[in-house]
Specification:
With 371 residues, the chain is α+β, with helices and mostly antiparallel strands. 35% of the residues lie in helices and 13% in strands. It folds into two domains: 13-84, no CATH class; 96-121 and 151-168 and 177-326, no CATH class. One of its GO terms (molecular function) is alpha-D-ribose 1-methylphosphonate 5-triphosphate synthase activity.
Amino acid sequence: MYVAVKGGERAIENAHAWLAEERRGDTSVAELTLAQIREQLSLAVNRVMAEGSLYDPDLAALAIKQARGDLIEAIFLIRAYRTTLPRFGASTPIDTAAMACDRRISATFKDLPGGQVLGPTFDYTHRLLDFKLAAEGAVPEAPQSQAKPGPVPHVTGFLNREGLIEEAPQDDTPPPDLTREPLAMPADRALRLQALTRADEGFTLGMAYSTQRGYARTHAFVGELRIGTVAVEMDIPELGFAIEIGEITLTECDTVNQFKGSKTEPPQFTRGYGLVFGQTERKAISMALVDRALRWQELSEDFTGAPAQDAEFVLYHADNIQATGFLEHIKLPHYVDFQSELELVRKLRREAGASGPPVDDGTGEGGGQPG
């Protein structure tokens, strides 16, 4: 905790008041409602929920409004609020194979049971500004989806039938909870995936891009990308079975990666995996690529020195809230620290026989070389 200056409470209160005024903006313009943010800025809401580790679209919309659209500040607000909530239980593992998909694509197989569903995507837009939106005109009604309702199998299952892809690791050991325990090294895959799913999207994207440019040699195909809703269930001891307590929207990505084999494993494909709250496909794909790069050791591959292979580097720098706190603290007062550095530099210059113009040290006395 940094304390700025004694007697600075009034200045801080004034800064908060000014911030509130700037947040509201021109009062002749209608104020944004939480429903508008939730429904029309849904991708921003999804990012705040994912990196804030709290699935609540309304609270995410409130955080975005309070933060004036600064998503990292909004994520900070959500994480801080999350720590105040009591925990009364844990859900059972979700079944993404039973996902009701709004979007499901594969870069590895054209014809899939259940079909490919493009869904709502920017992929095929021309990236030209649509000035109709500025006119606030009517929104065209989308045609009804031709996707068949119901669960669809994972694409990697087709490769698994022939033994062409590694078996998904099965481990029922409860993983550590990163929201309650600090990150510790070495981190197993479950802990790495936790860190990546709430990592900063931009950082994760940069790490993923580096793997595609050769810094990890993990050329990947998107085996499957799916977005949809899954049921969340919870065991009720009094009942003796699990009941559904709600549904959440998720994005899941399975990548298929090359693997030359080892002394114990034949040549086959390997997996990278990403799972994120909401429609956040760029993050899910990035997460899967980084996950695969971090698995070099368990797959007996060579460490090439690529940043994306260094678990300590990736995981300790991926959290945008920690990064923001450490970055922004340097704009707070460090007067004493700087004065000690200033005196050290003056002493070194005296010892070196250097001379120069007087240095203003902020005291109004001109500073300079003491006689």
